[in-house]
Amino acid sequence: MAGEAGKARTVLLATEKAFAAAAVAKIEAVTSAAGYTLKRLENYKSKAELLAAVADADAMIIRSDKVDQAVLDAASKLKIVVRAGAGYDNVDLKACEGKGVVAMNTPGQNANAVAEMVFGMMITSARNNYDGTSGFELVNRSIAFYGFGAVARAVHKLAHGFGMKSFAYDPYIPADKIKEMGATPVDSVAGLFEHQYVSLHVPLTDETKSSINKALLQKMPKGGTLINTARCEVVHDADMIEVLKTRSDFCYLCDVAPDDKEAKDAMKAAVGDKYGKRLIFTAKKMGAQTLEANDNCGVAAASQIVGFFEKGETRFSLKA
Question: What are the GO MF terms of this UniProt record (predicted)?
Answer without folding.
Answer: NAD binding; oxidoreductase activity, acting on the CH-OH group of donors, NAD or NADP as acceptor
